[in-house]
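FAD-binding domain-containing protein
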Amino acid sequence: MSSTSTSSFTPLAPAKKNVIVDGVLRYPSTGSKALIVGAGVAGMMAALECWRKGIDVELIEKAASNAPFGDGVLIGPSAFTTLHHYPSMLKEYDEISHDVYMTFAGRDGTPIIPPQELEWNREGAAVIGAYPLRVKSLLGRPELAELLLNQCKRLGIPITYGITIEKYEEDIVKKNATATTPDGRRFTADVVIAADGLGTKSHALTLGHPVRAFKTGYVVYRVMYSTDRLKDAPVSRDFVRNLERPVSFAFIANKVHCILAFTKQNVIIAITTEEEDDLATTDTWSTPVSNETVYSLLPEPDTWSPLIKEAILHAPERSIVKWSLCFRNPQPCWTSPAGHVIQVGDSAHSFLPTSANGATQALEDALSLPECLRLGGKENLGKATKVHELLRYQRVSLIQHVGFVNMQDIHIEANKDERKLPPLLMGKWLWAHDPEKYASENFRKAYAHLETGSPFENTNLPLGHKWSDWTVEEELAKQKAGVLTALELKNNGDWSIS
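Structure:
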């Protein structure tokens, strides 16, 4: 399809009738089918959006059944820009989400700055893409997974469990792709979406060789449990009893920070520190640890707020899980040679928790890709995935970088008089974004760029930002040399919130 111009697409056909299921209005059929490997957050949201965009879709998942687990997750507004299209899911979201505010404090609980709303909920903040939705960003991971699964069921999207994929292939002549199981079963579709996480086998096709994640040198200890366990914890018990709305604390100290969130129902803990174990390359590493072990990891434990002490020691024994934080350097290629396999979520990009954006970016992928597939149409699916990649890569790479500079920013002893940036500054460029709208408005220009080399520049970055690629090795070398990389990065372009 050489020399294709931006006006060469067949106009989208008008709807012949309205298809409405569970209050969701579906676009006219594109005649194409997507297979999604992985029924996690990215996979299920991509399935919902593919269905809504008129693409037949099927999900396969290696787990034997839906068994969501985990702690809490912070989801930014850019992940919820299409939520209003799903009235049942919107209602359920409003019931299970928590309107949390943030408190940044030193290890003893002394505030660095006054308690405040998340950036997008502050007075004078830029308008979000999900407006007029009040984005209540704290959700339990199990509840989020159940939210998406329930909506898939209401729309009749098929999900098959117990399917492990070990190989991805594409047929350039037939313009399709296949995911194959160890016992030889083959699942074929016009496009295969690899949403199967860090351990995906799709890199052998997208990059031509397997790529293993490496340990970053950081580890996080995570748990979520019921506040009922705090009945013998005097400080935390009274704090929860008097809680008017959910709150998330960030306790900051040298080489460690602790996120502690309270709702009326749950306690959520995430403690990130440096890892002293063997840093041999591995894709995943998780181990239950004792409460006393976690508490002893805090430097000078008795100097910490009693809230964090009680929260750790009153967790169900060995419910706290140690996760070694693994990462892949930013990866510019998420697609197979002809574009009929595309990676989304952790398959394409991993994040440190300090980006506060891993799940959000997985969901942004799931909102952008189906719109690109719809606009490309069945004959252009292979190029549509590459348009999605072009629209997303620079933005995602920058947010990955944010996770590393934030680690530097909040792994120093708290001193409000010496801080040069607000803690964990994100900016409107990040959370005011609308990934579906961005794909709609930029698809044809990005397509023409891929076909003819015509000019194209992404605008889903901070205004005025001079983008450049980066690696973890370069970032760590700068930090070792004493370069304030957080200051360097967040003075590059407009990171304001209004």
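Residues 1-7, 279-284 have pLDDT under 50 and may be disordered.
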